[in-house]
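Problem: given the chain below (391 residues), write out its structure.
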Amino acid sequence: MTRHSEGPDWTQLDPVHPDIADLLAEGRPDDGRIEAFMARIPLPLAEPGALTFLWKGHARAVEILRWINAGVDRDHFVRMAGTDIWYLRLPVEDGGRFEYKLSIHAHDGEHWILDPANPNRAGDPFGENSVAMTWGYERPEWSIPMGAARGTLDDMHVPSTAFGGARREQVYLPAGYDRDRPYPLVIIHDGGDFETYADLTVSLDNLIAEEAIPPVVAVLIQAGDRMSEYPRGRRHARYVVQDLLPVVSESYAISPHPHDRILLGASLGAVASLSTAFRYPGIFGGLVLKSGSFILDREKLSQRPHPVFQRVARIVEVIRRAPDLTATRAFVSTGELEGLAEENRAMADLLREKGVDVKFQTAWDGHHWHNWRDQLRDALTWVLKPDGDNS
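Solution.
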């Protein structure tokens, strides 16, 4: 990579965030004032329509890396004249968030790092990212510990004819669980990851305590090889319906009514949820499909040669030919920064055509666990509404 030319002087920046305008009110700031500013002011700086990032250090070039449209999007910082401060003002949508890393180009190559000026982090199975929150975004209060009575997690042993041997799953029981009353059931694909990366049980505790949703029993499925199992829907669906459901129904107080049985999943977990519901119609009355890895457009499918997408496309074709899925509610959501946002809109339309009562929701976010967390309340309140409530 070629060395970037000397950037502008601080006083040449226009427009700037109001806090930087205050910094520049006395003329060009020296390094000491800039360092004090960076230590005092939370970064990145948010304003309507923009975020401002600062990084201090020696480098040939500095970039911000964002995971947008199924790829890595790069925007370049500029180095302020006469300093080792790097600056980027990035246009954004208000009320959203995204995850990112900084790419530092040095003499020994490129290094991806977390933003040292930003304490906000989000994790996933591949590691941690820095989190940028745009103007007006607020983390849902119900995703933060608030002193609500806590549910418990049980281990459940599930003998499996579908896969052979046995599987071990976790079961969330709400605070005050009563063996003598029936509870709605929510089966959550990648439930262990939802707990680790998306504050699942904290959110359930709070939503139940504030009566946003009824107390529920939730089964946290964690597949060993989700990339293989979920898009090969037949065997997984058989496991959920013929192996898992009888065990959980025998072991816990579960409502027998289909409208009280919910399948929830994100990404390939959404594919597994939808496939299971269509292969066993009448068993589940609610679907939560977050950022599903769906491909409905044959032309787009040709641009995604990975075998996983070919398998998912076959599942979609099965759904197109299947009988309508009536008496079912579905919450379908996506992030506008994902590569599959339009595909999830199309899936919501297809489900409406198949007789499903659909609520579609979008956020200015990416294919991330905190995006899926943030939409949990709206999802569960939609699919757990009392029968006949069409509000």
